[in-house]
Amino acid sequence: MLGIAMEILPQIAAQPTRHSWMKPILEASKGWTELQEDHVEFLLNYWIVNKVKELYPEIEDTYNIARIARSAMLLVLEREAITMFLEKNNQWADCLFEAESAEEAAMVAAMDAMASREEQDEATKVLEMIESGEL
């Protein structure tokens, strides 16, 4: 439910929004090998895991918080583009989740991760910080 099919990512990124987080990445990655894509994915995961650990040093296991934030991040950052895409392509409505807020995206990702309410709440804060540019 949270994943976005690779075939529609460029279509979502092409929506005329105020800002696209995804579009420059897709353009830059056109010539990348699978190994390069995997490396970038690793770096993104590494960044999120470390940011979550920095934000919550008192929490021993932050795995689920980082997992929720990573799973929901694209839905939050490209919310406007996803909405515009679905308005024109409603055939994707059943398989593409449209989050109204960081909290809603975190809630769905938390259910998928079988995370606690506390982990969901902390991940919501992380997503809000990412969305605002604070992180």
Summarize it.
The chain has 135 residues and is mostly helical. It has helices at 9-13, 22-28, 34-55, 63-77, 79-88, 102-113, 117-132.
List descriptors.
mainly alpha, 7 helices
Mind sketching the topology for me?
Layout: H1 9-13, H2 22-28, H3 34-55, H4 63-77, H5 79-88, H6 102-113, H7 117-132
The number of domains: 1
Instruction: Tell me the β content.
Output: under 5%
Question: What is the overall number of helices?
Answer: 7
- What's the pLDDT, averaged over the residues? 90
Number of strands: 0
Structural class: mainly alpha
State the low-pLDDT regions, or none.
none
> What portion of residues is helical?
55-70%
Largest sheet at a glance?
Answer: none
Name the assembly state: single chain
Which radius of gyration do the C-alpha atoms yield?
15 Å
What order do the SSEs take from the amino end to the carboxyl end, as H and E?
A: HHHHHHH
Distance between the termini: 26 Å
Gross morphology: globular
Structural description of this entry:
- With 135 residues, the chain is mainly α.
- It has one domain (33-132).
- Helix content is 64%, strand content 0%.
- It has 7 helices and no strands.
- Helix 3 packs across helix 4 (63-77).
- The chain is globular.
- The two termini are 26 Å apart.
- The model has no long low-confidence stretch (mean pLDDT 90).
